[in-house]
Every structure is written in structure tokens, then in C-alpha cells.
């Protein structure tokens, strides 16, 4: 679990529930290069350069427990450069269609629905009680917040963020590196590199610093 913060706790809970069923992992721990504590949420915290991590990359799988798309992108590039493998953490309560395509590094938290022929790219995160409709494409490193509903055949670009409770009309395209504010209702396409808000959602300003949480 790369990231020992608030979202890391949520993803840890998902991984523990998943592992209770699948028994896939012998040990689940945090990796965090900033947190000073060596234990967090009852679990060991390692640094990426610690021998326990760097010396055993061939035996480990990583998922990124960071809620910012830019942070997810930075860490996944670091892992790729190091030759590390990405796993998947999918809550046992979520419904995932057999025909859905699930990228490496995917995180799906509780009570989500991933519908027929949806395609979720590498390092995507789908948060609690969100719905990803049929034939939706979600680009890599994108974060879908809780209680988002993405209508069928939408295309969501890479490195974007859909805020809590956003509603996305079927067939809409949302560009890469864009942010849709919480509670927004998206009826028409949103371009790359912008922040869009409201009902109906309109472009408010450029997404220049790529920061969601300020």
C-alpha cells in the first residue's frame, strides 16, 4: 500500500477484506517516504528504499493509496522505473462485470458497480458507492470519488478527478488532467486541463497546478 494517510486506511481495510477471501498476500503493509512513524493503523510502515522493499520487488505487488491524480501518476512512474509490479485491490462488496477490463493497480472501494465492457485503465481508483456504466473508458491515474455515477459509453481521460456525487450523462467525454467539482452534473463534453463546476457543469478555470486538495 503506497501511501499511509487517511485514504491509505480505507484501502488497507479493502485489502484486508479481499485477502480474507483470496489469501493472495502473505503480508500487507504500508510504504510511505514521508510519514515518520514506522507503524500506522496497526500496520508496519516501510520506506521504498528499505531493504525489505527494494530487495524484494520481485515478490511484492503495489497499489497506490493516494487521492490526487498527480500524486498517483508520480508514484506509478516511480514504481515502473524501479521494475515493481502493480496489484489490484477490489472490495468484496463491489459488483464487477465479467466483461469489464481492469487495469493493473486498480483500487475499487466498497459497494461500487463496474458494468458491462467498462474499461478501467492502469492505476485508476473508484471510490465508495460509485457506478461506472457500460462501455465506459476511464484513463490511467484517474480518481472517481464516492457516489459518482458515470453513464454508459462515457470517456474519462487520464489523470482526471471526478468529485463526490458528480453525475455524468451517458456518452459524454471528459478530458485528461481535468477536475469535475463535487455535486456537478455534466451534460456535455469537458475539455482537457480544466476545472468544471455546477449544474450544468461549466468550465470555471484552467487546471494549472493539478491540485485537488488545497
What layout of secondary structure does this protein have?
Elements: H1 6-22, E1 30-31, E2 39-40, E3 43-46, H2 51-54, E4 61-62, H3 69-82, E5 85-86, E6 89-90, E7 95-96, E8 101-102, E9 107-108, E10 113-114, E11 119-120, E12 125-126, E13 131-132, E14 137-138, E15 143-144, E16 149-150, E17 155-156, E18 161-162, E19 167-168, E20 173-174, E21 179-180, E22 185-186, E23 194-197, E24 202-206
Parallel strand pairs: 1-3, 4-5, 6-9, 7-10, 8-11, 9-12, 10-13, 11-14, 12-15, 13-16, 14-17, 15-18, 16-19, 17-20, 18-21, 19-22, 21-23
Antiparallel strand pairs: 2-3, 23-24
Quick take:
This protein is α/β, with parallel strands linked by helices.
What does this structure look like?
With 214 residues, the chain is an alpha/beta fold. It has 2 domains: 6-87, Rossmann fold (3-Layer(aba) Sandwich); 90-199, Hexapeptide repeat proteins (UDP N-Acetylglucosamine Acyltransferase, domain 1). It is built from 3 helices and 24 strands. It has an 8-stranded mixed β-sheet with strand order 6-9-12-15-18-21-23-24, covered by helices on one side. The protein has a 6-stranded parallel β-sheet with strand order 7-10-13-16-19-22, with no helix packed on it. The radius of gyration is 17 Å and the shape is globular.
Report the helical percentage: 10-25%
Uncertain runs with pLDDT below 50, 5 residues or more? none
Separation of the first and last Cα atoms = 23 Å
Sheet with the most strands? Answer: 8 strands, mixed
User: What is the count of distinct domains?
Assistant: 2
Strand content: 25-35%
- As for the CATH topology of the largest domain, it is UDP N-Acetylglucosamine Acyltransferase, domain 1
Q: What's the Cα radius of gyration?
A: 17 Å
Strands, count: 24
Instruction: Count up the helices.
Output: 3
Mean pLDDT: 97
CATH architecture of the largest domain: 3 Solenoid
How do the helices and strands follow one another from N- to C-terminus? HEEEHEHEEEEEEEEEEEEEEEEEEEE
CATH H-tier superfamily of the largest domain: Hexapeptide repeat proteins
CATH class of the largest domain: Mainly Beta
Which strand order spans the largest sheet, edge to edge or round the barrel? 6-9-12-15-18-21-23-24
**Overall 3D form:** globular
Query: Structural class, judged by helices and strands?
Result: alpha/beta
Amino acid at each position: 500500500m503506497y501511501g499511509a494517510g487517511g485514504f491509505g486506511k480505507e484501502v488497507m481495510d479493502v485489502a484486508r477484506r479481499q485477502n480474507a477471501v483470496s489469501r493472495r498476500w502473505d503480508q500487507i503493509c504500508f510504504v510511505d517516504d514521508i510519514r515518520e512513524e514506522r507503524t500506522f493503523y496497526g500496520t508496519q510502515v516501510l520506506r521504498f528504499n528499505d531493504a525489505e522493499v527494494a530487495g524484494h520487488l520481485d515478490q511484492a505487488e503495489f497499489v497506490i493509496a493516494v487521492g490526487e491524480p498527480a500524486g498517483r501518476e508520480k508514484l506509478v512512474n516511480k514504481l515502473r522505473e524501479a521494475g515493481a509490479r502493480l496489484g489490484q485491490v477490489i472490495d468484496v462488496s463491489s459488483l464487477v462485470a465479467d466483461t469489464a477490463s481492469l487495469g493493473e493497480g486498480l483500487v475499487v472501494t466498497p459497494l461500487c458497480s463496474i458494468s458491462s465492457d467498462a474499461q478501467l485503465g492502469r492505476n485508476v481508483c473508484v471510490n465508495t458507492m460509485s457506478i461506472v456504466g457500460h462501455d465506459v473508458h476511464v484513463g490511467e491515474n484517474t480518481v472517481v470519488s464516492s457516489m459518482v455515477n458515470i453513464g454508459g459509453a462515457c470517456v474519462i481521460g487520464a489523470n482526471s478527478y471526478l468529485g463526490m456525487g458528480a453525475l455524468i450523462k451517458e456518452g459524454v467525454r471528459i478530458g485528461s488532467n481535468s477536475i469535475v467539482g463535487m455535486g456537478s452534473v455534466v451534460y456535455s463534453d469537458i475539455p482537457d486541463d480544466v476545472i468544471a463546476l455546477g449544474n450544468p457543469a461549466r468550465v470555471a478555470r484552467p487546471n494549472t497546478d493539478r491540485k485537488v486538495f488545497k
